[in-house]
Structures are given as structure tokens and as C-alpha cells.
Design goal:
The chain has 345 residues and is an alpha+beta fold. It folds into two domains: 176 residues, Thiolase/Chalcone synthase (Peroxisomal Thiolase, Chain A, domain 1, 3-Layer(aba) Sandwich), CATH 3.40.47; 144 residues, Peroxisomal Thiolase, Chain A, domain 1 (3-Layer(aba) Sandwich), CATH 3.40.47. 28% of the residues lie in helices and 22% in strands. Helix 3 packs across helix 4 and helix 6 packs parallel to helix 7. It is globular and about 50 Å long. This is 3-oxoacyl-[acyl-carrier-protein] synthase-3. Its EC number is 2.3.1.180. One of its GO terms (molecular function) is beta-ketoacyl-acyl-carrier-protein synthase III activity.
């Protein structure tokens, strides 16, 4: 009898009233172009351009010395501080903080708490979501649900430092580096509020769907402990064929589902914020969705969980009242599709 009390098919995904008030972004160091990548790893520039799909990227380490220049905490705190300044907030104004990342500084303590400490934020709820490219929208989904009468303002962060998986003292001339580690490092943040603020962007619906039942992972990133140092497996593995085949399908499904949830027709959309993926896959996804990418960020590379926040940052300067946008993120490691519909207010 209990099985009939709740019907999953009758549930509707409804995001609480939420508004992106301000955004912040952070990139480490000077840009590294494709020619520098080719010289460092013995890779031809044509391959980097075609496979990675970007002209340059920023790394949180110095490629010449191997010295770490920025941590995830550094970048996350910088992006948050910028977002808080844009909204005129002090640390005591923030009611919660949510971080989405696939590359925390350590297993413990949680990087989200290091960011909070750096910002002077105390006595609030903090959450850290361990996820790949969909983690930013998962964090946004959670933040929307946390907003209530007692929690009026939250910080949402998406950040990744993937270059930590790149072994700089190894001869890579015979092995092409992973697209993940050649993408780039960075962080983005947004101030989320329950009340309408002039110039903000309304979050209408958020989609967050695990879609990998019975599917092999498309990406594996291992975190080796001291007992695993002799493990011969590579720290990063990617099934490029599976990613190229499944990502366009999941993106199309995400677009259809999020627009259906919101009650919007594709023709009413003004902006597409597409998933940032390896070059040819990204172009295929955009073509599949029959919309034009209007927040193209190839000059800063694919930044994992930071990407949607860089897109939101660009969108805030462009979107007008009642214009509509949709952002899509696809997580290939165990196949998550995520999306959000946004509207200028």
C-alpha cells in the first residue's frame, strides 16, 4: 500500500524563488597558449586545437618549475570575494555556502570550509559536492532549495584545479595528455538570493538527473592514497568514444526536459550556455540543440565546474528583462545531465 502513496511520475521539479544577484570569477596566472602546450608535451598544435577546442588556458602550477601557484581555496575565495563585493555583502550577510568541485585541495578538511574561513564567514551551513562538470548546477540546485525565510542569501561556487593530475617530470612525448588536465583551472561564484534585486537573473527551474544506470563510466579520476602509490593504473582515464556518442544525446534530453519543466518553447530562448566539452563534441552538441552559443569562452578554456559561473558572468552583462536563457552541463564520469533555465528581471 505504501508504494501507492507517492507517484514519482507525478512529481514536478520546482525551484524555490531564487535570483542570481552577482557573480565573480578567478583564473590563475598568465594564459598558456597551444604553442606552449605543444612545446612542453611534444604535442602538435593542430591536435590540441581540434581535441581540446581552446586557444589558451590558465594553470594553477608553473609548467616550467612544477611549483603550485594557486590552490582551489585561493581561486574559490577570490571568486566569492568578487561576487560578494558586487552584491555589497559582508561575511555576516551570507547564510550558507555550497561548493561544487571534482578536485578539492584535500579529502579533509573540506575545501568549502577553507574558503569560508578565508572569507571570514562563520556559523553557517556549508556543503561540498564532489562531482565533475555537472557539479556547478548541482550546487545551484541545492542552493535554490536551501533558500527560505531564515536563509535569504547564499554563495554558490564552482571550481576546479585539474592540473594537479598532470605529472610534469614525466616524458609525455609518446602519450597525449588527457583533455581534462589540458583544459584549465579556475573558479566562479554567484550570490543567490530569495528576494528580487534589480538587475538580477531569475532562476526558473534546475534539472539534476543521474542518467548512468548500467553504463560504464566515461571518465575515471583516481585519488591515490599512500597505500596506492604502487598502483600501475593511470590517474585519469577517459573513454573519448563514449563521451562523443553519449554527451550530445544527454544534452538533447536535458534541453527538452528543462524546457518542458519550465513551460518554455525553444523559439523563445535568447541565449544558450552549452556544456564546455572537447572541441568537436562541443560543436556537435551546439548543432544538436539548434541554438547558437552566445557565451563562447574558448579563450579561457574548459574549466570544469567553474564554466557555468563564467557563463553567468557574461550573461549578466547581456540579458535584458524577460529574455530567456538555458544552461546545460553534462557529467561524463558516470553520466549526469543537468540544466537550468534563467530569465532577465
Amino acid at each position: 500500500m505504501t508504494a501507492t502513496l507517492f507517484s514519482h511520475k507525478e512529481r514536478t521539479d520546482v525551484s524555490p524563488a531564487a535570483h542570481i544577484v552577482s557573480t565573480g570569477t578567478a583564473l590563475p596566472g598568465d594564459p598558456v597558449d597551444n604553442e606552449a602546450i605543444a612545446r612542453r608535451f611534444g604535442t602538435d598544435t593542430d591536435w590540441v586545437e581540434a581535441f581540446i577546442g581552446t586557444r589558451q588556458r590558465h594553470f594553477a602550477v608553473d609548467l616550467n618549475t612544477g611549483q603550485v601557484t594557486h590552490t582551489l581555496t585561493d581561486l574559490g575565495a577570490q571568486a566569492c570575494a568578487q561576487a560578494m563585493a558586487g552584491a555589497g555583502l559582508e561575511p555576516q550577510d551570507v547564510d550558507f555556502l555550497v561548493l561544487g568541485t571534482s578536485s578539492p585541495d584535500a579529502l579533509m578538511p573540506a575545501t568549502v570550509n577553507l574558503i569560508a574561513d578565508r572569507l571570514g564567514i562563520d556559523q553557517v551551513a556549508t556543503y561540498q559536492l564532489q562531482s565533475g562538470c555537472a557539479g556547478a548546477l548541482q550546487a545551484l540546485d541545492l542552493a535554490c532549495r536551501l533558500l527560505d525565510e531564515e536563509h535569504l542569501i547564499g554563495l554558490v561556487v564552482g571550481a576546479d584545479v585539474c592540473v594537479k593530475h598532470l605529472v610534469l617530470d614525466r616524458d609525455a612525448s609518446s602519450v597525449r595528455p588527457s583533455g581534462r588536465v589540458l583544459s584549465g583551472d579556475g573558479a566562479g561564484a554567484a550570490v543567490l538570493a530569495s528576494e528580487l534585486v534589480p538587475g538580477s537573473i531569475a532562476v526558473r527551474r534546475v534539472l539534476n538527473r543521474f542518467s548512468g544506470l548500467g553504463q560504464a563510466p566515461g571518465q575515471v579520476v583516481r585519488w591515490f592514497g599512500a597505500a596506492d602509490l604502487a598502483d600501475p593504473r593511470q590517474p585519469v582515464e577517459e573513454d573519448h568514444k563514449a563521451i562523443a556518442e553519449r554527451v550530445p544525446l544527454l544534452a538533447r534530453q536535458a534541453m527538452k526536459e528543462i524546457l518542458g519543466m519550465t513551460g518554455w518553447h525553444p523559439a523563445s530562448m535568447s541565449y544558450l550556455l552549452p556544456p564546455q566539452l572537447p572541441g568537436r563534441v562541443a560543436r556537435l552538441v551546439t548543432k544538436e540543440l539548434s541554438l547558437t552559443d552566445v557565451t563562447e569562452i574558448s579563450s579561457i578554456a574548459h574549466l570544469g565546474n567553474a564554466v557555468p559561473f563564467f557563463q553567468f558572468d557574461l550573461l549578466r552583462d547581456r540579458i535584458l528583462a524577460e529574455q530567456r536563457a538555458v544552461a546545460i552541463a553534462i557529467e561524463p564520469s558516470k553520466w549526469i545531465r543537468a540544466a537550468v533555465t534563467l530569465e532577465g528581471v
